[in-house]
């Protein structure tokens, strides 16, 4: 029976143990990787050192229990023990860490989105109430100033809602690889032309065309977001450099470089997190929603590419994208 069970359990992706008279007689590959190959033939107390888990395994019957820190500190597992006969037990372990992490991320996202929306909404409502008071809002200069603030906060809310909707649409199709042919050189020229009145962007390319399989709208959004960031945080008197280079290995590398104040190293690993800002005050002042780089990351990953940001304080920031070129 153990031999038959072993053949079946070896293909189970989650850790599984067969225990006979408190001795581990079989552990599948996932269990050996988690607990160590030495557990086979050992007492179950050596394999699983959690007191609650041991009580569950050795008890006549029980219910699934959760174990914290079984693999690494902070991990969360669910142990289920099924009684096969008087002495034999089937022990199954399910990793809940990813599920818990996703739930936590979702909760944090909702909380952050709510906060980001409440802040401008509170400002709008406050200034509207002030304008409704004839004594406080009667002065024309005051009215204009308050209306300007209301407009700014409303535009900030609109940008945030648009980015939230964009992120939602991108995540809905993240597993569908785009297939339309897109010329990144032409797309880069369009993106540079769109911002000509806002600042100077110098386009440098080693190819006349760079064809990728992609979603043209999403790739245009990537270039717009990165150029927009470079214009916001770069020096006003220094041009942005957009470089596009095809490689002999069948890739295209895109870099967008500014000469701004740069970003401290401790912020770099978290820049693509939703709502993360290296400089909260400055980001909000220039109209940032905290979602731009998260959107870029999701789009690039959907296109089977790689996105990275490098920066040094006082030396500017470089955003880099590498995408596979279309065959042929």
Q: Which features does this protein show?
A:
3 domains, 328 residues, 11 helices, extended, Helix Hairpins, 5-stranded antiparallel β-sheet, Beta-Lactamase, Heat Shock Protein 90
Walk me through this protein's architecture:
With 328 residues, the chain is an alpha+beta fold. The protein has 3 domains: 2-95, PAS domain (Beta-Lactamase); 101-172, Orthogonal Bundle (Helix Hairpins); 176-328, Heat Shock Protein 90 (2-Layer Sandwich), CATH 3.30.565.10. It contains 11 helices and 12 strands. The protein has helices at residues 2-9, 29-35, 44-47, 51-58, 97-132, 134-137, 140-172, 184-194, 216-233, 280-285, 292-302; strands spanning 16-20, 23-27, 65-68, 76-83, 88-95, 180-183, 201-205, 211-214, 240-246, 251-257, 306-312, 316-324. Strand 1 and strand 2 (23-27) form a beta hairpin. The longest helix is centred in the middle third of the chain and has 36 residues, at 97-132. The radius of gyration is 28 Å and the shape is extended. It starts with a helix and ends with a strand. The model has no long low-confidence stretch (mean pLDDT 82).
List the helices and strands and how they pair.
Layout: H1 2-9, E1 16-20, E2 23-27, H2 29-35, H3 44-47, H4 51-58, E3 65-68, E4 76-83, E5 88-95, H5 97-132, H6 134-137, H7 140-172, E6 180-183, H8 184-194, E7 201-205, E8 211-214, H9 216-233, E9 240-246, E10 251-257, H10 280-285, H11 292-302, E11 306-312, E12 316-324
Parallel strand pairs: 7-9
Antiparallel strand pairs: 1-2, 1-5, 3-4, 4-5, 6-8, 9-10, 10-12, 11-12
Helix pairs in contact: 5-7, 7-11, 8-9, 9-11
């Amino acid at each position: 029976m153990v031999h038959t069970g072993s053949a079946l359990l070896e293909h189970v992706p989650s850790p599984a143990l067969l225990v006979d008279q408190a001795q581990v007689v079989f552990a599948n590959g996932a269990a050996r990787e988690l607990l160590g190959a030495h557990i086979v033939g050992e007492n179950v107390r050596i394999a699983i050192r959690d007191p609650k888990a041991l009580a569950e395994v050795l008890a006549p019957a029980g219910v699934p229990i959760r174990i914290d820190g079984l693999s690494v500190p902070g991990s969360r597992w669910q142990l289920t023990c099924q009684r096969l006969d008087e002495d034999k037990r089937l022990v199954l372990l399910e990793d809940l860490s990813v599920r818990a992490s996703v739930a936590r991320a979702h909760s944090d996202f909702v909380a952050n989105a709510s906060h980001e929306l409440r802040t401008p909404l509170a400002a709008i409502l406050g200034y509207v109430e002030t304008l409704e008071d004839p004594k406080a809002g009667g002065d024309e200069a005051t009215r204009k100033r308050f209306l300007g603030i209301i407009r700014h906060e409303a535009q900030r809310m609109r940008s945030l809602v648009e980015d939230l909707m964009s992120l939602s649409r991108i995540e809905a199709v993240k597993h569908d690889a785009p297939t339309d042919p897109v010329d990144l050189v032409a797309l880069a020229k369009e993106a540079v032309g769109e911002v000509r009145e806002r600042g100077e962007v110098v386009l440098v390319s080693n190819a006349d065309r760079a064809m990728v399989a992609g979603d043209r709208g999403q790739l245009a959004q990537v270039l717009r977001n990165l150029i927009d960031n470079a214009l916001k945080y770069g020096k006003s008197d220094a041009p942005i450099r957009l470089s596009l280079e095809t490689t002999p290995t069948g890739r295209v590398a895109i870099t967008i470089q500014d000469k701004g104040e740069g970003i401290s190293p401790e912020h770099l690993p978290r820049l693509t997190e939703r709502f993360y800002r290296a400089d909260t005050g400055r980001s909000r002042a220039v109209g940032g929603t905290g979602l731009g780089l998260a959107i870029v990351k999701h789009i690039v990953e959907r296109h089977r590419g790689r996105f990275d940001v490098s920066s040094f304080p006082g030396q500017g920031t470089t955003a880099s994208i590498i995408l596979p070129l279309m065959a042929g």
